[in-house]
Amino acid sequence: MIAMDNLLIVRPVLMLLLCTAHIVSAQTISEDIESLLSQMTLEEKLGQLSMRYVPEVNEDILDEIRTGRVGAIINGKNSFYSLNDHNRMQQAAVDRSRLEIPLIFGHDVIHGYETIFPINLAQSCSWSPTLVKEAAEIAAAEASTAGVDWAFAPMIDVSRDPRWGRIAESYGEDPLLNSLFGAVVIQGYQGDSLSPSSRLAACMKHYLGYGAAEGGRDYQYTELSERSIREIYLPPFEAGVEAGVASVMSAFNDISGVPATANSQMINGLLRGVIGFEGVVLSDWDAVVQLADHGVAQDEVEAAQLAITAGVDMEMKSTSYFQLQSLVERGVLDIATIDNAVRRMLKLKIDKGLFQAPFAKPHKEENRESGLAKAKELASASMVLLQNEEAVLPIGDNMQSIALVGPYADEQNLMGWWSSLGNANQVVTARAGLQKRLSGDVSLTDKITDDTDLIIVCVGEPFSWFGENNNRAAITLPGEQEGMIQDLNKEYDIPIVTVVFNGRPLDLSGIVDHTDGLLLAWHPGTSAGDALADVLIGNYNPSGHLTTTFPRAIGQVPIYYAQRPSGRASQISYKDLDIEALFPFGYGLSYTSFEYGQVEVDTTDVSLTGSVALSVTLSNTGDMNGDDVVQVYYSNLVRGITRPVRQLIAFQKVEVPAHGSRRISFDIELEDLRYFDQDLIRQPPVGTVHFYVGSDALADKVVSYSIE
Ligand code: BGC
């Protein structure tokens, strides 16, 4: 075996790329790529398009790497490589393969690597792009120390079905929020350049419409109209391309009869042609060979042919792309299709700096304290206060004896799905967090006694009940938890605060009348209990707002705020249930209260600036400093097509001191109000635009602007 020191010796072929490293112009990169391409055999080309899952690093895989049959490795699922194993594989590629092309290592860095942040859906409830970006930067720094080059995130599938387990990985039901948070995660991972060792190449997923699985059943068929693609599912991917994302993952789902991984119209047409994406498209896990299971390919050869011609450059896990060799040799497949895919892969490796620095180096133990502090801040900011009767929270000085009960009071696995190297033993429980923060003369017990002043009951969903293929047909609290809260309320005349550790929007209608306080904590990650305690005792005034609608019952699904109007809207009803959601999109309380003044619109400069200026005064009418999320929705009824009754167009999270007020201004770009006409051509807004301002999707301060 070659000693580690020798790993850094620069080999001749690498010199080619290394020499040009300091004058990396598009032209030199492309010359380097062409030079490599011209030396490659067809098998080596197909090797560059092959991402392997390696449960165990053994001679078989090292041999394959040496022969140039492996382009990338997926690190994860059940295999996390030691630095040594990582570098053994890389060494086989750069020291022992004919062309010395480095491997690229990918991993699901979804909401943290070692320091686990709240699940992504929770993160979006912070309405803080700054915090979400900082979390991504920390995750990238941690993952890259372990040799990860490429993160399979952000997931920006607009998700409107709480039954679907992967709603937890998304940024909620709204296209704008998925666009915005997706873009900041891409920036947080990639920075200005992919090459520094603390950066990761991002991969936005799952392209396209994966969140629209019928019945919330993961992997299920999706029926998507061209209009819903353009208006709802595509915009986050457009924003990701604008943010410079390095790669895209094609989805598992069938899009109206053509599976995403074989969908040339979506990949070559929309993604590359219309949006102008130039990076790598990677298939999802086995999604290429599964085209046969979809019934669109008769065997793996045809599956591979469909995927590569649809624009999928790299195949994850399965190895059907090697079968393309015979198709090229028989003249059935144009070699140019393969060459273009290889070019994109080589470009990604060059951009990531792998030709200069292929090996993972032992890093000094990072200072994890600042990461944990950020995880706590984001977790507190993500929590949503849904109910606070009689101002039961924050815990007051009169609360001398607190009973902390329920199945999640001592739970450590609060890291959610995809928690990488997160260690549940390091997670701060609700009890540990509260114990640390409550003053010495307050007793915190797990029993309710005659002295108990406050019951805090911790309930939730286990991490394995949401995430990939963890769908639910009912969305109430699992098991006996709902009954438990009802019984506590019946049995004791003591205020109750319910804390919910959830991974999806839940039907909480069975508990809202039985609890005074209701706080959504989600799965908050490593700093769970610390963040929760800060919120409960009022060190942190809750500022989270929902990014998905919370239904009253599963029968209301699909339910989302941006519905289309109806000819008979006022007649739409259920015989057996209210039509309104239990908690609307955008909703969230604070320990203080806010009041909105009249919204004013200034249109004097519109023709000059192309934007409409809105302003509103936000007053804090309570005794505590607090943050509100000021949300602006608009509606614009236009000729010939229906448009959502409301659409989020802007927001600001602002702090207002107790009894103070602030003037908040927005410049709404007219260009952002464009719509797709009947032929799906983008048109400028026409007629009257109504703007609604407030702290949830039912905002009632309205102002109108008429476009001449
Ligand atoms: C998931 C992807 C993930 C991949 C690799 C698939 O099952 O759908 O989101 O990136 O596995 O772990």
Round the mean pLDDT to the nearest integer and report it.
94
Coarse shape: globular
For the termini, the CA-CA separation is 75 Å
Any idea what the radius of gyration is?
27 Å
Number of strands: 26
Q: For the largest beta sheet, what order do the strands appear in spatially?
A: 9-6-5-4-3-2-1-10
Main beta sheet strand tally, sense and closure? 8 strands, parallel
Q: What is the tally of helical segments?
A: 20
The structure class reads alpha/beta
What is the assembly state of the chains in this entry?
A: single chain
Question: Which range best describes the helical content: under 10%, 10-25%, 25-40%, 40-55%, 55-70% or over 70%?
Answer: 25-40%
Unreliable stretches, pLDDT < 50, 5 or more residues?
1-16, 18-23
What is the beta-strand fraction?
A: 15-25%
Q: What is the gist of this entry?
A:
The chain has 708 residues and is of the alpha/beta class.
Structure description:
It is a single chain. With 708 residues, the protein is an alpha/beta fold. It contains 20 helices and 26 strands. The strands form six sheets. It has an eight-stranded parallel beta sheet. Strands 11-16-15-14-12-13 form a six-stranded mixed beta sheet, with helices on both faces. The protein is globular and about 80 Å long. Bound molecules: beta-D-glucopyranose (BGC). Beta-D-glucopyranose (BGC) binds next to loops. Beta-D-glucopyranose binds next to loops.
